[in-house]
């Protein structure tokens, strides 16, 4: 049978049996238009032959049938192999027509497969959903961690900086480029020595101030004891009392060292971070120079 595309009027040759009894949705191989092709009234050529050969009147047809059987030629021997009886409905193609028949077959419209199409749509939807979730996690990292602080561990596991959102722009983006010393400041550093439980202990206290326009994550604090030649005698790092500090906020801190080196004369206190190091605050300790103080 011949199918004609309702969009581009391209004609296709199609075996009616491929449409089935109920018809089927087909697609044009040229313009990719899809439409529903209805099945023809009679799909089976054998059914047409049976209708055409049906006997009208047995009283008239029987004598003629007997006469035909009497004068019909004998059937060839089935074992001789010299005869070929094609089945009704088989299509015989001459050798010179084979190339044209191949071109005609290639021009058949594509039959849509609902199962494959549904599977493709399902996987595409899943990939789109996963990409959407990843995009949200990356774009709104700062908002997610501020609302749910435990998410910092998840970002650290994958080596991501949760404080750098991909959507940062304007003043917030400018803050990201500022060095740490322009965002956090050490105030009121006060070293002293005292005996605590009978042990000479160096006590260093101070404050951290957030001078940036947004909340800041507080890095560890590093303390270095220096001698008269500015050589390092002792270095240690400690964590501030809280993880984050609001804009304009101030938080006090204190650290202690038992049995400090007697040759220590200066103290350097700074933030300890591999990304950016704040300007060190050098403190000359009168307590170390003049000796220990008793409470």
TrEMBL record:
The residue ranges crossing the membrane are 120-141
Composition bias of kind Polar residues appears in: 75-85
Q: Which Pfam family name is an example for this entry?
A: Zn_ribbon_4
Q: Which UniProt keywords apply?
A: Membrane, Transmembrane, Transmembrane helix
Indicate whether Membrane appears among the record's keywords.
Answer: yes
Q: What is this protein called?
A: DUF3426 domain-containing protein
Query: What positions does the domain Zinc finger/thioredoxin putative occupy?
Result: 1-36
The source organism is Govanella unica
Domain of life assignment: Bacteria
């Amino acid at each position: 049978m011949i199918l004609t595309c309702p969009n581009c009027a391209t004609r296709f040759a199609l075996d009616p049996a491929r449409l089935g009894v109920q018809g089927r949705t087909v697609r044009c191989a040229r313009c990719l238009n899809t439409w529903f092709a209805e099945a023809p009234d009679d799909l089976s050529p054998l059914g047409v032959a049976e209708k055409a050969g049906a006997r009208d009147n047995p009283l008239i047809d029987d004598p003629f049938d007997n006469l035909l059987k009497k004068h019909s030629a004998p059937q060839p021997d089935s074992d001789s192999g010299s005869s070929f009886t094609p089945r009704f409905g088989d299509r015989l193609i001459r050798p010179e027509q084979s190339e044209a028949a191949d071109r005609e077959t290639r021009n058949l419209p594509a039959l849509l497969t609902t199962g494959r199409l549904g599977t493709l749509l399902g996987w595409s939807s899943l990939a789109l959903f996963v990409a959407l979730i990843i995009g949200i996690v990356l774009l709104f990292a700062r908002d997610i961690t501020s609302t749910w602080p435990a998410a910092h561990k998840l970002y650290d596991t994958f080596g991501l900086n949760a404080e750098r959102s991909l959507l940062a722009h304007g003043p917030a983006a400018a803050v990201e480029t500022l060095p740490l010393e322009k965002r956090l400041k050490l105030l009121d550093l006060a070293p002293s020595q005292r005996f605590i439980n009978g042990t000479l202990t160096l006590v260093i206290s101070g404050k951290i101030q957030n001078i940036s326009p947004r909340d800041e994550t507080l890095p560890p604090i590093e303390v270095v004891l220096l001698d008269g030649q500015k050589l390092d005698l002792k270095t240690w790092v400690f964590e501030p009392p809280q993880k984050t500090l609001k804009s304009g906020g101030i938080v006090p801190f204190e650290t202690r060292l038992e049995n400090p080196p007697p040759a220590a004369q200066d103290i350097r206190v700074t933030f300890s971070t591999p990304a950016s190091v704040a300007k060190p605050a050098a403190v000359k300790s009168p307590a170390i120079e003049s000796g220990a103080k008793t409470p």
